[in-house]
Amino acid sequence: MAHKHGHGHGRERIQFANAEDKQEFSKYPTKAGRRSLSRSISQSSTDSYSSAASYTDSSDDETSPRDKAQVNTHGSSDFCVKNIKQAEFGRREIEIAEQDMSALISLRKRAQGEKPLAGAKIVGCTHITAQTAVLIETLVALGAQCRWTACNIYSTQNEVAAALAETGVPVFAWKGESEDDFWWCIDRCVNTEGWQANMILDDGGDLTHWVYKKYPSVFKKARGIVEESVTGVHRLYQLSKAGKLCVPAMNVNDSVTKQKFDNLYCCRESILDGLKRTTDIMFGGKQVVVCGYGEVGKGCCTALKALGAIVCITEIDPICALQACMDGFRVVKLSEVIRQMDVVITCTGNKNVVTREQLDRMKNGCIVCNMGHSNTEIDVASLRSPELTWERVRSQVDHIIWPDGKRVVLLAEGRLLNLSCSTVPTFVLSITATTQALALIELFNAPEGRYKQDVYLLPKKMDEYVASLHLPNFDAHLTELTDEQAKYMGLNKNGPFKPNYYRY
Amino acid sequence: MAHKHGHGHGRERIQFANAEDKQEFSKYPTKAGRRSLSRSISQSSTDSYSSAASYTDSSDDETSPRDKAQVNTHGSSDFCVKNIKQAEFGRREIEIAEQDMSALISLRKRAQGEKPLAGAKIVGCTHITAQTAVLIETLVALGAQCRWTACNIYSTQNEVAAALAETGVPVFAWKGESEDDFWWCIDRCVNTEGWQANMILDDGGDLTHWVYKKYPSVFKKARGIVEESVTGVHRLYQLSKAGKLCVPAMNVNDSVTKQKFDNLYCCRESILDGLKRTTDIMFGGKQVVVCGYGEVGKGCCTALKALGAIVCITEIDPICALQACMDGFRVVKLSEVIRQMDVVITCTGNKNVVTREQLDRMKNGCIVCNMGHSNTEIDVASLRSPELTWERVRSQVDHIIWPDGKRVVLLAEGRLLNLSCSTVPTFVLSITATTQALALIELFNAPEGRYKQDVYLLPKKMDEYVASLHLPNFDAHLTELTDEQAKYMGLNKNGPFKPNYYRY
Amino acid sequence: MAHKHGHGHGRERIQFANAEDKQEFSKYPTKAGRRSLSRSISQSSTDSYSSAASYTDSSDDETSPRDKAQVNTHGSSDFCVKNIKQAEFGRREIEIAEQDMSALISLRKRAQGEKPLAGAKIVGCTHITAQTAVLIETLVALGAQCRWTACNIYSTQNEVAAALAETGVPVFAWKGESEDDFWWCIDRCVNTEGWQANMILDDGGDLTHWVYKKYPSVFKKARGIVEESVTGVHRLYQLSKAGKLCVPAMNVNDSVTKQKFDNLYCCRESILDGLKRTTDIMFGGKQVVVCGYGEVGKGCCTALKALGAIVCITEIDPICALQACMDGFRVVKLSEVIRQMDVVITCTGNKNVVTREQLDRMKNGCIVCNMGHSNTEIDVASLRSPELTWERVRSQVDHIIWPDGKRVVLLAEGRLLNLSCSTVPTFVLSITATTQALALIELFNAPEGRYKQDVYLLPKKMDEYVASLHLPNFDAHLTELTDEQAKYMGLNKNGPFKPNYYRY
Amino acid sequence: MAHKHGHGHGRERIQFANAEDKQEFSKYPTKAGRRSLSRSISQSSTDSYSSAASYTDSSDDETSPRDKAQVNTHGSSDFCVKNIKQAEFGRREIEIAEQDMSALISLRKRAQGEKPLAGAKIVGCTHITAQTAVLIETLVALGAQCRWTACNIYSTQNEVAAALAETGVPVFAWKGESEDDFWWCIDRCVNTEGWQANMILDDGGDLTHWVYKKYPSVFKKARGIVEESVTGVHRLYQLSKAGKLCVPAMNVNDSVTKQKFDNLYCCRESILDGLKRTTDIMFGGKQVVVCGYGEVGKGCCTALKALGAIVCITEIDPICALQACMDGFRVVKLSEVIRQMDVVITCTGNKNVVTREQLDRMKNGCIVCNMGHSNTEIDVASLRSPELTWERVRSQVDHIIWPDGKRVVLLAEGRLLNLSCSTVPTFVLSITATTQALALIELFNAPEGRYKQDVYLLPKKMDEYVASLHLPNFDAHLTELTDEQAKYMGLNKNGPFKPNYYRY
């Protein structure tokens, strides 16, 4: 059962046609650092994104959705999904997701009367999952018309796409698209008679790119772009710098709630889940080195230590290193400890953090995985060499076998462990989706001139609003300032409560 | 042994002569929020700041130092301390402090050859403790001439002041100064023949204020002011706003290392120490409510939970509240839980967070204390009423007794618990002192024009340098970027490693 | 997709033929308490015990193994497994398990020269998994002859059984046996010409029972029985009490290593894994009540609190309750908190701990599961009533829907969550398997008279030896007593180090 | 300020007159192991036991209490304390203690009507502190007559002794007794006209010893002895073994509540307190080695890790070592890590655990202290040699200075840190005191024949009762078994709930 070397693992990123864009992309990491979870979602298009992705797919036919004629029960055929008949199953998945997304449901209720998105025509390009469906249906409930496509060729939950199409949202997406399918779907989404988008919700920048290239006139009437990913945000800043951004854009990637909750808290849980599902490892007493003590690294370290692992870290930044010290982690160089480690986890956003030389020195049974960005952190390419044998022992788990019999356990071929091998809690996705919805409302309703042709962060007050919508999940009760206290602190009783530079 | 009501507890703040200044001060809290540890040091001038403050004082005579003629062994009498003969004892205290301040010692060694402060004439106004002495002697070793006075009438360690005076640093300070003494000392420090300061190191802004009022010409040649406290920083921003700041000023209060380490980590340890020393409380199973989940609150909650207390929090800011939820703390309104609590801790920076009505509803034996700013958080004044009996049971511990016999245990009369009832680890003071030293070096050596008449934060690279100087304490080994990695990340191999808005 | 009510979920326990045995069984729980993990393994025979159980099964034919003629490559047909051709796959599974069972491998090496089990003829009846295979092959390496059968009709890993059969161990077991198959396999295992067992290794007591009923003469020459499960141990004590136990028996269920490690540490990890795999729940901020604060409850509480859940407990025993208080958990009655809880977990070993009335009061989305013994703790039967709708949403996950739309999420139909929905780390199984091996060696080699016809605990020194064999996994280095220290403590330098009543 | 070497640090133990007793004592440690907290209280008679011990002593006269004629306000002079006039102050201390000893108060209320100790004549020999006073006054409230003396020449709180004497309890004790005073007090306590004790409450065995030697006839009518310390319990077992025990004795030292709460939980808090009060150390990032992972070591490790220290342990027992691994601590030999450690803590109950050779290898500033038994664990004697300089820097803190300037910080001269340098929470003392009271009630009221001339553990049901009396402190609510559940579990609804061997 030797693993096939060298075969292309599908495209990790839709390639742009011209050199300029490529360059933009290749320059990306200079600014991005490690806060790159969502961008990585966009990138790792071969990851099986969700364990729920293929409930009913197994017996499906092989016909391309593009070749099928499908009609929903309302007579519409303005969609293209795998199988419209899966709608009922998908509806149930959406209902389950709604249980953990009460912030969006609450937003629906609060804003439904006034329909703040009445008149909004939104094209969206995101992962198509039950959670996204809750977002889309919220936008519709608030008055918007939506057309949707997938930002990733593998991550679509076909049943959910069917459920959306059934209720009348034109969706163009299925799991396992080809690259040609991918752009065809985007085009079908944007290019429709008698309807022109005035807002874009993007994850990764591909939709924005396509509209720029093919339908630049859309931007004349557009109220704005909301972008979630590091990659997409980076492109927008590049455009802005080059003077080519012709609508306001909202960077939701760098909002506090997204950063702190997606990275610190989400990774705190998913590192355990990802390791457990793939290796059944017992954490107690395991020697673990975590490379990078940013938010992702902090989350990983907290969880592993809490379950009895003995964790040390590597860092390049002395401030983060000092935090690690105070938090009780030894700060080491990887080479000093590599021989003793049971688990090596990368969270740096950098490349070649784990080198072949270090892989050579690992002990038998050492587990290596990546929680950082993309698949560059571990030099996996160096392992695809003739003297090493790959043995796939489980889905997402390879044993790399050295000539002397030593085995290193590589997870997800060095791609993001938590996206490949665990699930992302709906609650975290709810925070992001709520932020997106508020960004759309803000841009759509902002008075003329509040936003120019530039990239903006969500106003802190809206960050606070997103947070407040999630507090009922925890039965949390906020304290209100008295008039006297508000005056003493120089604060408005309704916030914002902190200066912009506050570090939380 | 009833507590004497109504007597003035000494001045909590040197009063300014004119209304304008008073107003500046009264406006202070509007910006300060809860990051106010050092400012509070400045304020709580009646606190017995350090347990080491009075080793040899008990049998001292009552003569005012101003009336004594003292000469050090080098023949100098340019100082005014309690008793120059205590120098040897003070020297040993300084030596002990040096053991935990290896960052400053290391800075001495690295910069000693080049004498980066040669020509600097620094007047300083800070707490005078063994740790400050290590700072002052570092400045001297780097080439500076220094004159020093105390920012607080109670916090001076007399032996340390003597040791400094013995080695030739003109020090004007003793424990238990009167208000008149306080200003006399500042004046003696600044106003000396044949010597004019060109830099100011201030903690609280009193020295700066005095120079502004009395010797404004000093600012003509001064290279800058380094200010540590929230109060002082606030005044500088006010001056800057009013166009009256005539030299560059460095705000070291808001540097990352100071904020995160002084607040989060220092409070994590001192809350336990402060409660234990005053009440011998067993933490396990105690119901505790912490008001405020900023850095100070986070530190308190972490420690208390770690030792088995059951902690809930109150918050006004939904983002901090959501963090508390994710960290495992119930978010409540104080009134909902006040009857059940064993301990109530305030960390908000606000006023009247604990009201008389809530104090009335506490259960017998409830402990109430403040880790936030100043002494406003608990409405202590409301407890000084005829129907309640105060009983001082230990130093810093009062039982307030209700007519029905209920006792509430009030610590430090609502002033800062960790400054009043515990000690601040030398290691934390080392971080602050190193930051001050680097700020002085930076301002003194900056090329013309780099800094204007404004308030600046320390450059991030220097923050990182402060951190790196403290890593050897932990035997921590930083990883260096390879050229390839630095290029990939778009970083200089020597830092800075993070954008300015990075939240750590 | 409504769940089928009322269908029998297979036998949960092989039924005995006569009333006396039944009564023994029904009396069991009176002594068992909550230290019942392994017994529950034995009981929950319908659980899909291991995620690795069915790698290659899907395309198998439907012919009963009893009707197949199979021969291994050595020409032997003294076995009955699903498909001898799966041996190679099974071998690899065994090799992977060996990596985490270095204690057994080490035991093989240490004892291989002297063959301490030479002459031992062992019949075994346990789960047949890769880990058991490592045990069996260790026994063989130490000189024993073994015949093996399964203690559970569902838990056999067919490939592993094939691998054992291929190397010459007569194995009679496959996944999905009928009750008749079950006893047929046991009989084939015991009843073979020219070979009579002199030792029994049992898990659940079924093999022991069969030998008692059918081949009592076996006990005339047997050196002893080693029993792992609470159920089996209970039966042995009953036999002993009744004067019917005619060989020495070793109770490995109550050894320290098994109790503390299987229960506390194993549950600490598996509660998270079980909840995550079934529900993708985010732990941060979840309100959880854990019923029972024994070892299992302690493990669950520790892990959940560490990941940010807010945990309270229920207890009947004031000592355990006081421990919970000191550990920072509120001690409540279930009815007081049931309305607020997000998750309810039972770990009591009792019955009807969660009643229908309490289920009625849970909030929408509440997750209910059992980590205790058997499936009695939650009154699942009360939920199988006409007014409630069951919806199976995932494997092992049912939504129970109330008429008003409220959903309660029931996991594993109230059976043991960690066995049904997570995996047991090999490391924990290694501790148990090593204990079993040592118990067999001890009984087989004990001098005449050391053990009588009674039930024994493993000598503490052997408990300590089991532990010491596992320390190299952690690169742990024991300290040795000096002669002087040993004398001072009155200890032998090689142990045992603690009195029998030591509580660890 | 060099430390005086070689001076006798007072007697660490009252010496017995004859060889037999000495031998008994010298043999003690062979059985005691590390569960020796209370014994060590008894032993370390020079420790300043409580921070509250000397509130009002400073200006006292030097006259021996034995030479004073004192009368309380009721006209009685049957007592001997430092100064009867301090009674009011002592009364307040007792009242404060009562607040945290509600279990005893509750016991008073429950049993007051029936006066279960009516007729009991109790002589007691314990530490005389506010907490003991609450116990004594409880015994009186339940009907007993009491006479009391101190088990330690330094630990008496004079004000508390005065308060007891004032209310009519004959107390013979003061702080700073000579050895002759010690025995004189015991004798005065026992030998009084017209009154003969029928019960003994002892801590350390000195009172029991005296009665055996001088007034053996007392035992003819005595109902029993209650003994708290390891030392005293050991002596009782020796007597029992030798056939010389002539009354029933209750060993409260080995009761569950005492062991688990006194050791694990009490040390969890006091290690932090002891280190902080003496050294102001910051725990974050400190490298700590804890020698011994029994209950005391577990408590220390838990707390230090929780506050960010990096902890490793040493162990001789592989089972405890494996627990340490699973709990996330590296298990090392002391010599392997000694050079890197910031703090070394002994908790083994053994001798010479830290040797001179290891002290020689420690780094500059390393802190060394003992939480185990007696003062044998660190080889302090080896440090009293000419080439090393001792410098006392604070109370209980010595710097030992090597010829090269290296300083090792030795706390409490190697005696018990938590007794010397921190306080014991009243809550923990409440558990012990309640256990003592119940043991007295049980022995006094037991029907003829229940207890023979042997040493007994408190019945588990009473352990459970002690625990239950403390639950209201935490507002903890126990769950009651239903009849059906009790039957299913084979338990009495009122307990006991666990078998005797249960490990908690």
TrEMBL record, chains A, B, C, D:
Catalytic activity: S-adenosyl-L-homocysteine + H2O = L-homocysteine + adenosine
Highest taxon of the lineage: Eukaryota
Binding site for NAD(+): G294, E295, V296, G297, K298, G299, E315, N418
EC nos: 3.13.2.1
Pathway assigned in UniProt: Amino-acid biosynthesis; L-homocysteine biosynthesis; L-homocysteine from S-adenosyl-L-homocysteine: step 1/1
Any single GO CC term annotated in Swiss-Prot or TrEMBL for this entry: cytosol
KW NAD (keyword) present: yes
Segments of this protein annotated with the region Disordered: 1-74
Skewed-composition ranges (Basic and acidic residues): 9-25
Keyword NADP carried by entry: no
Keywords tagged on the record: Hydrolase, NAD, One-carbon metabolism
GO molecular function, one term: adenosylhomocysteinase activity
Cofactor note: Binds 1 NAD(+) per subunit.
Matching NCBIfam families: ahcY, PRK05476.2-3
Family according to the record: Belongs to the adenosylhomocysteinase family.
Protein name: Adenosylhomocysteinase
Organism: Oreochromis aureus
